[in-house]
């Protein structure tokens, strides 16, 4: 059974989230729900075609200055589609100037992630995303008009699942002021050596270095990071002053998350995930929620832009 109250988070859960910048909720999805999402994921991996795929590999370029940020049309147009992105280590470069990249693994074992509109285009994923319980969580977090975006399965394939360097989610899905919260749901166990999450506890607070000082945006020829010249802290945190050292000296706390568990991740908290060095895959489903109410603006420079109908409203599940 889920440990979420029917009315959203309990006062104790909310306090923990506000203090730490993340919250682990055990058994959020039932075994049947997890199996449904895993079966859907495997079906998607088996059925997508390579015939017209541009062989886009997913990387932010964060961990290697020589690695180009992902930013081709296949990536930039994925906000309202289901697209497939390869692990860099699963694709060999062309052997000649006229050659094409080639896979080093079977295609179903070569994908880094599937995204970014599973919550609106795949009924099994929609069922666990646009739901009354998620709307209740968002309400208890203070959202007035929570909007869902950037849903994806992160695959972390055996042996090659790449690490994700330290980052803050509001760098990628920036609103002014920042409002993003991530829902990260383990579909398989995520433990040390198997691409576990690492959280810098309390690093979302302004006095702990939780400012959004950079942004991941569209740019000529793709995407890039820029200095954020807008608001850097969510409403209610503007008065906090950053401490010297940024509050990151405590390092990352590695979470032990089981299949079906939900991790709520504050958009300003610093976090990372490890490389998968194990012989097992580590699938997770994640989506983000931003504030759509008046007083918050989703930036037109963000890499992901809303479809014509706008981002999905979580409150539609209860209205």
Automatic annotation (TrEMBL):
<dbReference type="GO" id="GO:0051213">
    <property type="term" value="F:dioxygenase activity"/>
</dbReference>
<dbReference type="GO" id="GO:0046872">
    <property type="term" value="F:metal ion binding"/>
</dbReference>
<protein>
    <submittedName>
        <fullName>Phytanoyl-CoA dioxygenase family protein</fullName>
    </submittedName>
</protein>
<keyword id="KW-0479">Metal-binding</keyword>
<dbReference type="InterPro" id="IPR008775">
    <property type="entry name" value="Phytyl_CoA_dOase-like"/>
</dbReference>
<keyword id="KW-0560">Oxidoreductase</keyword>
<dbReference type="Pfam" id="PF05721">
    <property type="entry name" value="PhyH"/>
</dbReference>
<comment type="similarity">
    <text>Belongs to the PhyH family.</text>
</comment>
<keyword id="KW-0408">Iron</keyword>
<feature type="region of interest" description="Disordered">
    <location>
        <begin position="225"/>
        <end position="247"/>
    </location>
</feature>
<keyword id="KW-0223">Dioxygenase</keyword>
């Amino acid at each position: 059974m889920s440990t979420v109250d029917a009315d959203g988070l309990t006062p104790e859960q909310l306090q923990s989230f506000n203090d730490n910048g993340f919250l682990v909720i055990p058994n959020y999805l039932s075994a049947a729900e997890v199996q449904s999402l895993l079966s859907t994921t495997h079906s998607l991996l088996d059925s997508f075609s390579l015939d017209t795929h541009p062989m886009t590999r997913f990387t932010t370029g964060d961990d290697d200055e020589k690695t180009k940020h992902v930013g081709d049309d296949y990536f930039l147009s994925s906000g309202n589609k289901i697209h497939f992105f390869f692990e860099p280590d699963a694709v060999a470069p062309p052997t000649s100037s006229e050659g094409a990249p080639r896979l080093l693994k079977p295609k179903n074992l070569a994908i880094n992630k599937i995204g970014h509109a599973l919550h609106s285009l795949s009924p099994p994923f929609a069922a666990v995303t646009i739901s009354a319980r998620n709307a209740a969580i968002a309400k208890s977090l203070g959202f007035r008009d929570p909007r869902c975006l950037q849903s994806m399965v992160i695959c972390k394939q055996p042996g090659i699942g790449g690490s994700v360097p330290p980052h803050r989610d509001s760098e990628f899905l920036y609103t002014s002021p920042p409002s993003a919260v991530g829902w990260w749901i383990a579909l398989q166990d995520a433990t040390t050596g198997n691409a576990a999450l690492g959280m810098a506890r309390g690093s979302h607070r302004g006095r702990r270095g939780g400012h959004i000082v950079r942004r991941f945006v569209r740019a000529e020829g793709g995407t890039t990071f820029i200095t954020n010249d807008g608001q850097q802290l969510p409403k209610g945190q503007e008065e906090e002053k950053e401490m010297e050292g940024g509050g990151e000296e405590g390092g990352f706390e590695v979470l032990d998350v089981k299949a079906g568990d939900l991790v709520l991740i504050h958009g300003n908290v610093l976090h990372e995930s490890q490389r998968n060095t194990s012989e097992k895959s580590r699938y997770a489903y994640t989506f983000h929620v931003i504030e759509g109410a008046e007083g918050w603006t989703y930036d037109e420079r963000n890499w992901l832009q809303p479809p014509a109908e706008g981002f999905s409203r979580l409150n539609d599940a209860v209205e």
